[in-house]
Amino acid sequence: MNERMNTLESESAGKQRLTGATESALQTAKDKAQSLGHEGKERALEEIDVRKSGVAEELSRLGQALDSSAREVSRSGDSFIANPLQQVARFCEQASSSLSQKGPRQLFADVENFGRREPALFFGLALAAGFMATRLLRSDPDEVTEDGRKFDQLEGFENPMQRGH
Question: What is the number of helices (H) and of strands (E) in the chain?
Answer without folding.
Answer: 4, 0
